Amino acid sequence: MAGAVADALPEFADVFPFERFNRMQREALPALVGKEGNVVVSAPTASGKTVLAELAICRALDRGETALFVAPLRALTNEKEAEWERFESLGYSVYVVTGERDLNSRRAKRADVLVMTPEKVDSATRKHDSPKYEFITDVACCVIDEVHLLDADRRGSVLEVAVSRLRRLCEPRIVALSATMGNVRDVAEWLDAPPECTFDFGSDYRPVDLHADVRTYTHGENAFADKYRRLYRALDIAEPHLREEGQALVFVASRQDTVRAAEKARDELASRDVPMAARGDSDFQGRAEELENTSLRRSVTDGVAFHHAGLSKHDKDLIEGWFREGSIELLFSTSTLAWGVNLPARCVVLRDTKHHDPLKGEVDMSPLDVLQMLGRAGRPGYDNVGYAWVICDGAEADKYRRLLREGKPIESRLAEDLDAHLNAEIAMGTIRDLEDVMDWLETTFYYVRAGSEPEDYDFAGLRKRVRGTLDSLVESGFVELGEDLSVSATPLGTLASAYYLRLDTAERFGELADRESRESRDGQGSGAIDTDAVLTTIAGAAEFDSVSARQAERDAINAVLGGQNVAADLGGGGRKVLAVLRASIAGSTPQELRSDAWVVRQNALRLLGALRAFLARFAGPEAANCARRVEARIEHGVSPDAVSLTAISGVGPGRASKLASRDVTTPGEVRAAGTEGLVAAGLSEGVADAVYENAEELPAIGIDWGEFPDWIASGENEICEVSVINEGGDARGGVRVTVNGIEMSGTTTYLGEATVPVGVFGGDVEELRFAVRVTFPELPIEPIAETRTVAVE
User: Fold this and answer.
1) pLDDT (tens digit, 9 = 90+) per residue, 616-673?
2) How far apart are the first and last CA of the chain?
3) Which H or E run contains 488?
4) SS (H, E, C) 559-577
5) Which residues contact 323 (CB under 8 A, 6 or more apart)?
6) Which alpha helices (H) appear in 292-335, and where do they start and end?
7) How far apart are CA 330 and CA 332, in angstroms?
């Protein structure tokens, strides 16, 4: 097939910003455009793999089919949406589906190109039979970018099961691409890609030769000082290239590190008298004023910049453009840049081989991430050789030299979460009996890789291991195994799957719900459920097992918790999570805990949503409402008095706290105050109008006791009717009637008007105290309760 774009895809020639395909693209072109089979491609970084993805998408669009692009990072999905406006100009629609935005199912259904992360594909395929996610079964072509993500901790198993499930649901054509894949044949076998559609393009397909090696530094006692030792080492490596008008790209561990490294590098290069063209370019100095970030604006005037996912798109676009044109000569970045933008440099240095994970502490960079970053070395058309360096402690030098020399095969990570993924398949109904379990196993990359490396994976014992996992699911109450060897999910297993929980966490949530349910039945009210119980349950979730407390954080943790022995059973990491959550509901997080607080809170909010569902299912609406109020307090940082107000649209922590300080604490009190009262409480008239109108949309509950007696004769009985009337917005609520603390009846329904029969029995007590409580499990509103006392004479 000819190398001209117009010859290969005349209808889509305008999509590509060039006229002819390169050598690698020409060799893959017949398989992508002219054949039907699945395609697997391993090719060096910067060799043009993105074009292969676009070729596969164009072929699908030409056939009137829906294409799915699976991006490795959430940040890259938004970049693809902007980049692929080229498809929009031809009349095709591109829609990004991520966890960041509310899903518009109609747009997703009409989209020609869907862009999703592996996690969202997993979610959509689990819920494919719901109207909201049925669009996923329309996918006819699935392009997996950076398929070596299969070997990533946690995320790898998600990609593996999501792709396997998608293939069972709609049998799409799969096109899998990777820059760093040592065992391409294993991936091809998993995806059933025939030999003529499997490509392993070697280093000779790199547009620029690569020289990669390791430089060491002397490791000290102070981690902060070590960063600067490695920075000076990186500048030693980059300096000769900068003096020859080359460019250097230095990867560091965190966003904050990019800023600090750029600031220090500016001063150090000036002290070394390294010429930087930007300093004498008055035109560029003027353009630098376009940047929104103040630190970045100051840095680029010396030809030094930083790049990370937290920058605005405007600033990132400018930095990338200036680096390509050569105005920026030294760029510090996080690893995100290696996965996304094609931004090569003559010299690439990996300053940090470790990074701080808020949930795990200090961890090694993934070997595949290391190779991905170093692959950015060498600018096609400008450099004959690219230079890539890893800076590490001398003790790790051999490890990284071996990685650079031999690469790394992609492994399956499914075994790490086999129980959760098997439970999910059973909960979905895709596995219905023991035979299905074994059939499912054979669809996984895990099975293929085990066959390729039988000793490492104990291939002979694989089926026994999977059967053992199934038995443990049955024993733990997630799955039921019938006498006919049928399998089905219990309510516990269904909820664990629906909320993507680690199974230890699901058991923990179930135990709390069971304890609350027992105490409620025994007449102890909600004895097991209060704010402390909810927070402690969340802090002890398995999802936080890898959280570590740094030495500098321990005094702050003890101060928040009230002593070093409080919640000692949670361990250091769990106590840190608990401290962050308690500080969040108090509205003030100590400085020492702020760096990880956002990540902890976001994970906790997801887990609280799951806990609320467990409590609603197994313990009732009152317990679920308690969790919902804790969730709102963590999200908004408000007091117990103010939390009900956050149910009102447009009322955040500031307005809720302001109103609560004026004794307006519930949506009902907002309605009673009216606009005039809200203005008196400190809101502007326009805001007061909006808050009042939004409060009107929430439930407004009244309880009518009817002809309820004041007394009853001993030995007599009377059946009365109590009505719960909702004059506000519709909502799901629980109605519970107790007498002397013992539950008489309870129901959960969408409240319009509910009539509850209440028996009044004259027994051996002097009085009967009846209580009607109305609780909203999905709203952070305090339960509404009224009581009546009946004398027994």
Assistant:
1) 999 999 999 999 999 999 999 999 999 999 999 999 999 999 999 999 999 999 999 9
2) 100
3) strand 487-489
4) HHHCCCCCCHHHHHHHHHH
5) 247, 305, 331, 343, 345
6) 294-300, 313-325
7) 7
